[in-house]
Design brief:
Layout: H1 12-24, H2 31-44, E1 48-52, H3 55-65, E2 72-77, H4 82-90, E3 94-98, H5 109-120, E4 135-139, H6 151-161, E5 164-168, E6 176-177, E7 186-187, E8 194-198, E9 211-215, H7 218-227, H8 236-240, H9 261-272, H10 274-292, E10 298-299, E11 307-308, E12 314-318, H11 327-336, H12 352-358, H13 366-372, E13 375-378, H14 386-403
Helix pairs in contact: 1-9, 2-9, 3-4, 3-7, 5-6, 10-14
């Protein structure tokens, strides 16, 4: 039985809402975007939620709004998708790559602190040969796979060195952390200056393509709301609704980052199901753990203390030192058994652009370098069945048995 990597959960209510948008004649940014934003803000308890066409756009808008410019330095984990770092380059600033933690694959606060201290002392670090004239500006943690990073440690570092935090929470809706078991839970979206969410097709909820910028900061929200639509002082909904005015002014050279009402129509109902979606993925992840945890050749992902995991993806570590094949060959073996897998991620320091532009080397990121050669992302989606998980688990077990040393 073939097992797909991901299956989106689209119901009749999403379809009906999209049809309603199409019949209304309002297809681009309009009333459904407004509703989606209000629903998200209420769900997460944030002051502002701005719908955009991708998480990449949300990250770019956030960095632009806090004033990132040329010669600024922004700290980004190497273990992430290129979008996290590329938005820094959009503004001609420099992404400084940071190693990850062994247990969570999230940005390592100790390595982050080490890099910051060296730069503060005008000492070179990988990716920044000459710190003179550079300004340390922001940290962009990624809450990898749906589990939040070490928020407490990162926040302390940011406060100590006067840096802003912009969260890449593309994997992390809904997830939460707490300081200790006696402290309240804080959801992703509430622990940074601004936070970006993704609604790409295989994310924890989808609008097909889409994202959201979250912030409690009025100035960031004001700037981002203008910049997401060409730097125009009023959005299309304001200008073209019945009581609106045709008049507008361009106050900045903005971008084309707005979400459509058709996309928001899907999002309105996806958000209503987000807890059920998480429960389905969590159930699948726990079944995987039960079926794979006794295999000596793999390590299953775990939820760290004081975390609520969103389980966007299920990332298995293949201990290649215990096998006669490498990770890539392991994936080929699973593919032969009709199991569709992926890899999250080939880290940024290995990609030609970042490697060659900033002269990064494998030894600069020892933990990330080791992990990236071991990770395999197994199929996981809210409606995954125990039969499908059995199929995947049996395939993994077969490959381990066949190639174990």
């Amino acid at each position: 039985m073939a097992v797909p990597f991901f299956v989106p959960e689209i119901g009749d209510d999403e379809i009906a809402e999209v049809i309603d948008s199409m019949k209304s004649g309002w297809l681009t940014t309009g009333p459904k975007c407004k509703q989606f934003e209000q629903d998200m803000a209420k769900f997460l308890g944030v002051k502002h939620a701005l719908a955009v066409n991708s998480a990449t756009s949300a990250l770019h808008l956030a960095l632009e709004a806090i004033g990132i410019v040329e010669n600024d330095l922004v700290f980004v984990p190497s273990m992430t998708f290129t979008a996290t770092a590329e938005v820094v380059r959009y503004l001609n600033a420099t992404p400084v790559l940071v190693d990850c933690q062994e247990d969570s694959f999230c940005i390592d606060p100790e390595h982050l602190r080490h890099l910051i201290q060296r730069l503060k002392n005008n000492q070179a670090v990988p990716g920044v040969k000459d710190p003179q004239g550079k300004t340390l500006k922001a940290i962009m943690p990624v809450h990898y796979a749906g589990q939040m990073a070490d928020v407490e440690a990162i926040s302390q570092i940011a406060e100590e060195f006067g840096l802003e935090i912009i969260d890449d929470a593309a994997h992390a809706l809904p997830s939460a952390y707490r300081k200790d078991e006696n402290s309240p839970w804080i959801m992703a979206g509430k622990c940074a200056k601004a936070t970006a969410l993704s609604f790409y097709a295989n994310k924890t909820m989808t609008t097909g393509e889409g994202g959201m910028l979250l912030t409690d900061d009025d100035e960031i929200a004001k700037r981002a709301s203008v910049m997401r639509l060409h730097g125009i002082s009023r959005d299309a909904w304001d200008r073209f609704k019945t009581a609106g005015s045709w008049y507008y002014e361009v106050v900045a050279p903005g971008y084309k980052y707005n979400m459509t009402d058709i996309a928001a129509a899907i999002g309105i109902h996806q958000l209503k199901k987000i807890t059920a979606f998480r429960d389905g993925r969590s159930r699948g992840a726990m079944l995987y753990n039960q079926k794979l945890e006794n295999l000596a050749e793999v390590l299953t992902p775990q939820t760290l203390p004081n975390r609520q995991h969103a389980w966007h993806i299920y990332v298995l570590r293949v201990l290649t030192d215990k096998l006669s094949i490498d990770r890539d060959a392991f994936i080929e073996e699973l593919t032969k058994r009709e199991i569709v897998c992926s890899v999250h991620y080939t880290p940024l320091h290995r990609h030609p652009y970042y490697r060659d532009t900033y002269n990064y080397k494998a030894e600069d990121f020892p933990v990330t370098e080791n992990i990236c050669q071991q990770v395999i992302t197994l199929p996981l989606f809210p409606s995954i069945t125990e039969e499908q998980i059995d199929e995947v688990s049996e395939a993994v077990t077969e490959v381990c048995r066949k190639y174990r040393k």
